[in-house]
Amino acid sequence: MIRFEQVGKRYPNGREAIAGVSFDVRAGEMVFLTGRSGAGKSTILRLIALLERPTRGQVTVNGKDTAKLPARQVPAFRRQLGMVFQDHMLLPERSVYDNVALPLVVAHVPMRDIDKRVRAALDQVGLLDRIAALPPELSVGEQQRVGIARAIIARPPLLIADEPTGNLDPQLSRDVMQLFRRFSEAGVAVVVATHDQRLVEESGLREIHIASGRIA
User: Fold this and answer.
1) Which of 13, 33, 39, 194 is the most buried (most CB within 10 A)?
2) pLDDT for residue 136
3) Chain centroid to CA 206: how far?
4) What's the rounded Cα separation, in Å, for the pair 124 and 102?
5) Residues 70-74: contacts with CB under 8 Å, at least 24 apart
6) How far from the centroid of its chain's Cα atoms is residue 134's Cα?
7) Beta partners for residue 82, in sequence order
8) H or E stretch at 202
9) Local mean pLDDT, 10-residue blocks, the chain (216 residues)
10) Is the separation of the CB atoms in 62 and 80 below 8 Å?
11) Residue 67 CB neighbour total at 10 angstroms
C-alpha cells in the first residue's frame, strides 16, 4: 500500500526534513511513526498525502509513484486517503452530520447514499445520537471521533493520522486506537504518527522510529 525508497525532503530554506527513509506498509496493516517533535513524522505523512513531493527517492502509494502524478490527478488521489488531525479541523458552524458528509458532497455522491453512509460512519464511532449537534457542543474526544468518521466516510483503503490523541486523556486515547485497529482489521492500511510511547507499547504493533529525519 505504501513504499518509501531512499526518500529525502529538503525545503527551499535548506532544511532537510528527512533523508534516506525507506519502509513499506501493507494493506490492512497498522503501524506507528514515532519520534520527537520535529523528527520528520509529519513530513512523511504529508508526502503520503501528496501535500508535499519528495526531493529525492520514490514514494509509492496504492501503486502510484507520487512524483509522477500530474496535478490534475491529485484530488482523485487524495480521495483514496482518510486523514485525521490533532485539531480535528471541523467546521464549527455546521452540524456533525454536515461535517461528516462533506467529502461525499464534494465528490458529488447522491444525497440518498450520503445519508446512509453518514449514519453508518457515525454509528461506527458511537456518535449517531449527536448527529445534529454543532462541534462546539461536543467534548474534545467526541470532536476527534467526528474527525475520524469524516476520514472514513469515503471508505478509503488508507488512513493516516497525525498525533490524533495529543489532546485526549489516556482512556480516550485507547478508544481512538481501538477504532483504528478495527479499521485495520477490515483491510484498511493505517499509519499513526504519535509521540505517545505508552500507546505504542500497549498496542504491540510495528513501530517506525524517526530521529533527525532518519529511521533509527
Assistant:
1) 33
2) 95
3) 17
4) 17
5) 74/50
6) 23
7) 159
8) helix 197-203
9) 96 93 96 92 95 94 92 90 86 96 92 94 92 95 92 93 86 88 94 92 95 92
10) yes
11) 16
**Cell numbers for 100:** 461528516
Length of the chain: 216
- Grid cell, residue 151, equals 476520514
| Side chain identity at residue 175, one-letter code | D
Q: Tell me how far apart the alpha carbons of residues 26 and 189 are, in angstroms, rounded to a whole number.
A: 7
Q: By C-alpha distance, which of 40, 33, 17, 46 is closest to 209?
A: 33
pTM above 0.85? yes
Cell of 87: 485539531
Which residue type, as a one-letter code, is found at position 24?
D
Alpha helix (H) ranges present in the chain? 41-48, 74-78, 96-106, 111-124, 140-152, 170-185, 197-203
Which pairing describes strands 214-215 and 206-211: parallel, antiparallel, or unpaired?
A: antiparallel
Name the residue type at position 199. Answer: L
